[in-house]
């Protein structure tokens, strides 16, 4: 139901934009910028390039709007453009998208006996740091699945990867995160 | 009795309810090591969900709309340039083809007095300027209507 009404309002907005009401594209941007931010910021930490990337992504979306087929949600379609654009950017910079090597070796900043109330905060901080250490694609998949609560099917549409591959990447990423958290706590107790 | 342990992948799938398997459920009641893993994954997932969503340091809408408007202006300019080029080539070709006839018309002017020629020239120029001005005003009005 919700999905259908989304499709409906997507259709109205797109028709308006294609009829020359350019400023309505701002609505599309507003509705999708959170998801695009999750992808771009997880895929690349280089803040200087974020603005160019975001402009590129939305310009592509705008210029190809007439080819949007309503086969998926508009947000999924734009997320797919965001993902492809960012992957191209990483490839140009020769940054590996799935290279796991650096994430497994443990480079912890050991916090000294955190107070009880701050343990939760520390855990979140540590986890955010551990997540950051994962390869771009793993980070993005974890974010899309657990934070954006997208299904494997939707993630497959965004990343053009088979669902099986996504599942196994996610599983590997969770295992690395779990092991690194364990390692961190063990070190802390010593 | 202790059967084989389950893989991390299977335990995750079980935890995320992607699979349902009574064998795992019963195994977990007797196997502390698999149970510990389930708890650790649960802890991880609970915390990952609470990580703050990423945002940009700039206003996305402003930045994007600026880019799109620039692209549109450029497209419009290019379209106009092409239009002007086609128009001027057509005019040049027409002038070239009509040259013999134009020459005949101009020889006719020699028959009139200078005053009559100046009068004709001024009238024609006046009409042309009036028409061009009108055309321009209509174009501006349409532009305003379109961009509203
Ligand atoms: Zn077991």
Features:
heterodimer, A: 190 residues, mainly alpha, Rna Polymerase Sigma Factor, Chain: A, elongated, B: 148 residues, 3 domains, rod-shaped, binds zinc ion
Report on the structure:
- The complex is a heterodimer of chains A (190) and B (148).
- By secondary structure, chain A is an all-alpha fold.
- Chain A has one domain (2-189): RNA polymerase sigma factor, region 2, helix turn helix motif (Rna Polymerase Sigma Factor, Chain: A, Orthogonal Bundle), CATH 1.10.1740.
- Chain A has nine helices and no strands.
- In chain A, helix 4 (74-92) crosses helix 8 (152-159).
- The longest helix of chain A has 27 residues, at 163-189.
- The relative contact order of chain A is 0.11.
- In chain B, helix 1 (8-15) packs across helix 3.
- Chain B is mainly alpha-helical and 148 residues long.
- Chain B folds into three domains: 8-50, no CATH class; 64-97; 100-148.
- Chain B has helices at residues 8-15, 22-30, 32-49, 60-109, 114-147.
- Chain B has five helices and no strands.
- The interface between A and B is large, with 43 and 34 residues.
- The structure holds zinc ion (ZN).
- Zinc ion is lined by residues 5, 27, 31, 33-34 of chain B.
Short description:
The complex is a heterodimer of chains A (190) and B (148). Chain A has 190 residues and is mainly α.
Greatest interface by residues involved: A-B, 43 and 34 residues
H/E element order of chain A:
HHHHHHHHH
Number of domains of chain A: 1
Please indicate the percent range of residues of chain A in DSSP E strands (runs of 2 or more).
under 5%
Query: How many structural domains does the protein architecture of chain B include?
Result: 3
pLDDT < 50 runs, ≥5 residues of chain B: none
Alpha-carbon Rg of chain A, integer: 19 Å
């Amino acid at each position: 139901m919700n999905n259908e009404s989304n499709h409906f309002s997507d259709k109205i907005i797109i028709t308006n934009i294609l009829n020359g009401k350019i400023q309505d594209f701002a609505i599309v941007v507003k509705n999708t910028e959170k998801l695009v931010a999750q992808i771009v910021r997880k895929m690349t930490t280089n803040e200087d390039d974020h603005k160019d990337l975001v402009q590129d992504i939305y310009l592509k979306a705008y210029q190809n709007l007439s080819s949007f087929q309503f086969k998926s949600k508009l947000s999924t379609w734009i997320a797919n453009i965001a993902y492809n654009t960012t992957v191209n950017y990483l490839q140009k910079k020769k940054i590996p998208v799935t290279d796991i090597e650096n994430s497994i070796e443990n480079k912890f900043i050991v916090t000294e006996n955190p107070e009880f109330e701050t343990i939760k905060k520390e855990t979140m901080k540590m986890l955010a740091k551990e997540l950051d250490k994962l390869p771009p694609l793993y980070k993005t998949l974890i974010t899309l699945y657990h934070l954006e609560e997208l299904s494997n099917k939707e993630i497959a549409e965004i990343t053009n990867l088979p669902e099986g591959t996504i599942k196994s990447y996610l599983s590997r990423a969770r295992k690395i995160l779990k092991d690194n958290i364990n390692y961190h706590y063990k070190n802390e107790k010593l | 009795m202790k059967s084989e342990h389950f893989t991390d992948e299977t335990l995750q799938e079980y935890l995320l309810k992607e699979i349902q398997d009574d064998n795992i459920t019963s195994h977990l009641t007797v196997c502390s090591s698999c149970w510990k893993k389930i708890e650790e994954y649960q802890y991880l997932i609970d915390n990952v969900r609470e990580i703050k969503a990423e945002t940009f340091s700039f206003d996305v809408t402003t930045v994007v709309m600026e880019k799109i408007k620039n692209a549109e202006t450029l497209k419009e300019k290019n379209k106009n340039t092409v239009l002007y080029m086609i128009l001027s080539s057509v005019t040049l070709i027409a002038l070239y083809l009509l040259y013999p006839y134009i020459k005949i018309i101009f020889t006719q002017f020699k028959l009139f007095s200078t005053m009559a020629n100046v009068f004709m020239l001024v009238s024609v120029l006046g009409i042309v300027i009036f028409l061009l001005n009108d055309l321009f005003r209509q174009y501006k009005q349409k532009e305003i209507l379109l961009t509203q």
